[in-house]
Amino acid sequence: MPAPIRLRELIRTIRTARTQAEEREMIQKECAAIRSSFGEEDNTYRCRNVAKLLYMHMLGYPAHFGQLECLKLIASQKFTDKRIGYLGAMLLLDERQDVHLLMTNCIKNDLNHSTQYVQGLALCTLGCMGSSEMCRDLAGEVEKLLKTSNSYLRKKAALCAVHVIRKVPELMEMFLPATKNLLSEKNHGVLHTSVVLLTEMCERSPDMLSHFRKLVPQLVRILKNLIMSGYSPEHDVSGISDPFLQVRILRLLRILGKGDDDSSEAMNDILAQVATNTETSKNVGNAILYETVLTIMDIKSESGLRVLAVNILGRFLLNNDKNIRYVALTSLLKTVQADHNAVQRHRSTIVDCLKDLDVSIKRRAMELSFALVNGNNIRGMMKELLYFLDSCDPEFKADCASGIFLAAEKYAPSKRWHIDTIMRVLTTAGSYVRDDSVPNLIQLITNSVEMHAYTVQRLYKALLDDISQQPLVQVASWCIGEYGDLLVSGQCEEEEPIQVSEDEVLDVLEGLLVSNLSAPVTRGYSLTAIMKLSTRFSSVNRIKKVVSIYGSSIDVELQQRAVEYNALFKKYDHMRPALLERMPIMEKSATNGPAEIVQTNGETDAPILDTKHPPNIPQPISQANDLLDLLGGNDVVPVIQTTAPTKPASAGGELLDLLGDLSLTGGPAPTPAPSVPMSQPPFLLDGLTSQPLFNDIGAGIPPMTAYNKNGLKIEFTFERSNPNPNIAVITIHATNTTEVDMTEFVFQAAVPKTFQLQLLSPSSNVVPALNQGSVTQVIRVLNPQKQQLRMRIKLTYTHKGSPVQDLAEVNNFPPQSWQ
Question: Which UniProt keywords apply (predicted)?
Fold first, then answer.
């Protein structure tokens, strides 16, 4: 068989290929020849063939069939064969292949070889791809070589020990004795690898970290010698002595000094020397300064040293290299919370970075600018950030707008400035703001009572200029609907009022309804605004006409709004002024009292049913009666079937509907409570979680059927709460005898004022067909006066695609349940 071509010739041949297909053909042809040679057990050219195979592997072609040949080369006595064999093993093998375990014995023999270069090959291979099993077997040999006097082997053994510790952390203590004399070595290679080994041990074990803290003075001495030493051609890089070793020592000092006062004190002086003596004209010096800054910021350093570190980062911001500027911005962003005043000194330089052409630098500068905003510089910083918002790329607008909103909310010097700033953002980048910006701005405007006329005038002007920014249009529509009378009357004192008529305002809102730029949500805002103006303007007939037109809109949301508003005009016109009056001041933390009282589908634990309301919010009782009228009237019969799933105006009204004429005496209906936000009373069973929830008191209370109609059966079972016998715990069991599941099942209940009621979450919202399961829900009723229990229940569900809603009154509770 002719001798195979040399590696150099193969490379030259492959490079002559003009197409990918031609290259593949050459590779396949050569692989076939190499396979044939391997099959004939040709030892003469095995080394050459494996070398060519490794080159093909580097080009991305499969070379796994050469794995066993690598093992044969490792077992050879020739150094050239071993070198290619070990290189092949590092490239073609890893711990996922079982073949690598066959190398263990060869590596062990070579670690004890008489030639240091063979030992070095074995150490490199073990440190590159040794599995946890190999590391356990060979850790002893590595530890022996770590103690040898040969610096060539010691540096390789130290790096191999790092790999062993990563694979088998429990072997860390084996290398502890060998680390004692590593830092006294004069060879920089050994010093470098020793520092890497110590760093790995400190990062993985708190015990090792405490043990090696005593080495801080020695590390400081080594670093000082590197700084003060004269020119050494062997280690000099751009005029700096061994910057790689300096960086490694600084990283180790950072780990050792973190959270330790004594260690931090010992390294303060040397860090100051490094920070002041390192040349910054070359990238090498900047790398050392960057590591010095990170170390200063991580340890418990002196305040003056931290200011020095921030100033170094400030100098980095002026560097022409984009990477250095990016690193400086990222580091300042991490330190701004701890050293805010020091970073503030570089504010102008940071703001200038907003104009950089590099998008990464602009993003970091934007984030850092927001971190620097405070009450003293809010006006100047917002001016710069708004200018940046005007000119930045679309990818920045969303984050920039959110940052401006948050900063303005936190540090706004006045409400007018706050409103102007947010309106400027909506005008500039309205399409990019977050979804919650519209309700937040509406809340801000609502709570700024003295600014209502100014705000509605500014927003009206903005609408005339541009209706493409949807959030701005939505806020403007809402404000015009609320404060349109102030706009028309020209009551603005902050700026010159504009003269506008009712028809002009309605023209603008109607234009929004028909504009192609308006989103469906925006049209809903506009229609609601027009409806609100029916109580503020005199053009009621025009508004009626607009609302009636959209009763047949193809947009279901718009159609529903229009139909409901038409009903207000026709059937409930006497209620319209009360329903459309101005919104009260909104509180972010406030809960919508009545909405939480009647629990809908048990999504959260409901508070106790209570009809008390804050005395400082007066509301006419007649208005509550009107709501009661709207929701079904006072004369509720025991069982009422309603097929139209009309949505209640509010959960408060729904509560009134449920209570109806329910009273203890059976006399006339009690005056219903106004539908206003309620304070949330404590839960019935608060403070009782450490005791059993129920006891055997309710064992003798017979169950009862509360409702049985249209295939839906509701049964009540009773228990008494432990330890308070005044609390009756009722468990409802809902079953379905029909052939179709009842979905979206909701059970609601109400009791007279002398009781307190709490609904817990139901087990499901689907009642299975044919009695194949049931829905259970727990009701807690507090009856301190031991009066006869009466309850009104409301059932809502969907059956065979049709929504069903039913009311019923339950009066036949067993005496044992309330006595």
Answer: Cytoplasmic vesicle, Golgi apparatus, Membrane, Protein transport, Transport
One-letter amino acid for residue 389 of the chain: L
d(CA 594, CA 611): 9
Instruction: Check: CB of residue 198 under 8 Å from CB of residue 212.
Output: yes
What burial letters (b/e) apply to 324-354, b meaning 16+ CB within 10 Å?
Answer: bbbbbbebbbebbeebeebbeebbebbbebb
The size of the chain, in residues, is: 819
pLDDT per residue over 411-446, tens digit each? 989 888 998 898 888 888 877 887 778 888 888 888
- At 434 the pLDDT is 77
Q: Is 480 helix (H, G, I), strand (E, B) or coil?
A: helix
* Mean pLDDT confidence for 13-29: 91
In the chain, where the domains are located: 435-580, 704-817
DSSP state of 181: T
Nearest to 548 by CA among 566, 525, 533: 566
Q: Look at residues 182, 247, 187 and name the one whose alpha carbon lies nearest to residue 212.
A: 182
The number of CA neighbours under 13 Å toward the Cβ of 666 is: 4
Q: Which residues, 6 or more positions from 648, have their beta carbon under 8 angstroms from its beta carbon?
A: 631, 654, 657
How many Å apart are CA 101 and CA 98, to the nearest integer? Answer: 6
Angle at 616 between CA 610 and CA 620, to 5 degrees: 80
The secondary structure of 382-405 as a DSSP string is HHHHHHHHHHS-HHHHHHHHHHHH
* Residue 69 contacts residue 99 (beta carbons within 8 Å): no
Cis status, amide bond into 471, omega within 30 of 0: no
**Residues with Cβ < 8 Å from 292, sequence gap 6 or more?**
250, 271, 274, 275, 278, 309, 312
Q: What angle do CA 4, 6, 8 make, to 5 degrees?
A: 155
Q: How far apart are CA 193 and CA 65, in angstroms?
A: 35
The strand pair at 236-237 and 240-241 is best described as antiparallel
pTM over 0.85: no
71 with 102: CB under 8 angstroms? yes
Model pLDDT, residue 722? 66
Instruction: Please spell the DSSP secondary structure of 16-53, one letter per residue.
Output: T--SHHHHHHHHHHHHHHHHHHHHTT--SSHHHHHHHH
- Distance separating alpha carbons of residues 550 and 43, to the nearest angstrom: 91
Report the relative pairing of strands 775-782 and 639-642 from DSSP bridges: unpaired
Structure confidence by residue, pLDDT tens digits, 803-815: 899 999 998 888 8
Helix (H, G, I), strand (E, B) or coil at 119: helix
* CA distance linking residue 704 with residue 713, whole number of Å: 11
End-to-end CA distance of the chain: 109
Q: What is the largest CA-CA distance in the chain?
A: 117
Q: Say if residues 812 and 704 touch (Cβ distance below 8 Å).
A: yes
pLDDT digits (tens, 9 = 90+) for 182-225: 888 888 899 999 999 999 999 998 999 999 889 899 999 999 98
Q: Do 245 and 198 form a contact (C-beta atoms < 8 A)? A: no
Determine the Cα–Cα distance for residues 377 and 355; give it in Å rounded to an integer.
20
Alpha helices in 112-187 (DSSP H): 116-129, 132-146, 151-167
- The answer regarding whether domain 704-817 maps to CATH 2.60.40.1230 reads yes
Element (DSSP H or E) covering residue 268: helix 261-277
Q: Which two tokens stand for residue 751?
A: 């009791």
Kindly give, in sequence order, each residue whose CB lies less than 8 Å from that of residue 738, ignoring residues fewer than 6 positions away: 710, 711, 769, 770, 799
C-alpha distances out from residue 137 to 32, 92, 105, 389, 650, Å: 38, 22, 9, 62, 75
**What Cα–Cα distance (Å) separates residue 479 from each residue in 280, 442, 501?**
58, 8, 16
The partner residues of 735 in beta bridges, in order of sequence, read: 713
Question: Cα dist. 727→274, 455, 597 in Å?
Answer: 74, 52, 18
Q: What is the CA radius of gyration of the chain?
A: 40
Distance of CA 795 to CAs 179, 601, 661, 749, 809, Å?
A: 77, 11, 18, 9, 11
C-beta of residue 72 within 8 angstroms of C-beta of residue 85: yes
